[in-house]
Fold:
Amino acid sequence: MTLAVGMRGEASLTVGEAETAAAFGAGGVRVLGTPVMIGLMENAAWRLAQAELPAGETTVGTLVNVRHLAATPVGGHVVATAELIELDGRRLVFQVSARDDKQLVGEGIHERAQVSLERFLAQLAPG
Structure:
């Protein structure tokens, strides 16, 4: 199979203390932190793409534009969904969302770039 517009991926988690805004220093409240929600959305997109890429290829995040709409308390279950909505060469665009047991908690757009893992890592090596 290859990547195609309309494909969907998912990632989920149960909110623990480590995933709260308080733990990230991004607010003193014990609810799902925005950085964790974004990471979950990215994971859903990465998982979708990675399953379809040839060996030696991966994707890296290049843009995140999301809104965090509602709070999810510790113990809440969150499912992030990524739908591939555009393929432009090595650029992949996803519509992302996150829902907890009650409601939509986040939504937006996430872009990833397809890269050669070897070349990408070589750029990080000390010069």
